[in-house]
Amino acid sequence: MGRAPCCDKANVKKGPWSPEEDAKLKDYIEKHGTGGNWIALPQKAGLKRCGKSCRLRWLNYLRPNIKHGEFSDVEDRIICTLFANIGSRWSIIAAQLPGRTDNDIKNYWNTKLKKKLMGNFYINPPGHSNLSCGMPLAPEQRQHFIDPFSPTIPTLSVPSSSTSDFYELSPFNSSSSSSAATNLQSRETLVGPINMYGHEAASCSSSDGSSVDKDNHHPRFDHHQQVPNNNLQGFSPSHYGNEILGPGDQDMINYGSNSAPLDYYGSIEEIKQLISNTSSSLTTATTNHNNNDCNYSGFLFDVENRSSSPESVAANVPTRADEGVLYYY
DNA sequence: AAATGTACCAACCGCGCGCAG
DNA sequence: GCTGCGCGCGGTTGGTACATT
């Protein structure tokens, strides 16, 4: 009954990987693939490692196209807005950031981004479009500081009609396939939960993409996520390639006229609350969603304007016409 | 220069789910 | 239907580098 034991834990090496081990693992996988069996892999590859450890090492470090180094403002925004929407679902967030792993994002969030947000949680007064986030305010500039934990802080709502209050992240150059009309309409349909689409394996999450998305299924989301399963199909970073966050990303991202780096507007409040109340955030969000009282904001996809060809639907691959526009503010 | 504190990140750990047997 | 393993995930830890005192 059952399968063979995972590994002989007494005979397994732990700790940092040596260059030799890395080379062995990489060489083996490049030649033979994972074979869909991580447990058997280390033995085949001649490694005294647990399969789990091999998997982690490969997915988080050795795999091709892994991005290391600084996160861009664009990535910051995506992380923050997704965090505000779905909480600490790092694999999902990683699916939106080509080349980044969930572990990477998680570390970045815990060590930098969270502090960056918490340290700059000053909400600008009405009429001031920019929430300074990522740019610490001088003490004299903090006259409008609002205690983020104050119960008097209103809950987030979809911002007003000013399009400059929105950031638009299009998978493609804003001047390309996403028509202005579509974008405009999208702005006017800022409703509903997060909707991502296109889900061929592309994530650099420690989930290798094959499991999370291969069957359009995220096990945890299915059971207690606030986001419906069919709304969690990443917008396929691989489809867009690294372009989305590449050197040309400025061409793809229309920040709006009043934008400044790391402006999150109201969503900062949600993020803050999530940070301060991580344990309950998912439950709350789930409840909200289940009650159709979804209070999500800040990271909205154009649902209505999706036009999916039968082919793309069948293959779960977005066509260019299928490209949605991702808005966040 | 040494001690201490802090930040960062790779890796580990434990849990839940799905599936093989 | 039951058992137990494989896998994926998120949380946590430990080691190292850097900063500060």
UniProtKB/TrEMBL annotation:
Gene Ontology terms: cellular component = nucleus
Q: What is its main location?
A: nucleus
Which part of the chain is the Myb-like domain?
A: 9-62, 63-113
Q: Which domain of life is it from?
A: Eukaryota
Query: Could you tell me where the Basic and acidic residues compositional bias lies?
Result: 211-224
Residues forming the HTH myb-type domain are 9-66, 67-117
GO MF, any single term: DNA binding
Compartment annotation: Nucleus
Q: Where is this region: Disordered?
A: 202-224
Keywords on record? DNA-binding, Nucleus, Repeat, Transcription, Transcription regulation
Keyword Nucleus among UniProt keywords? yes
> What protein name is recorded for this chain?
Transcription factor RAX2-like
Q: What organism is the protein native to?
A: Punica granatum
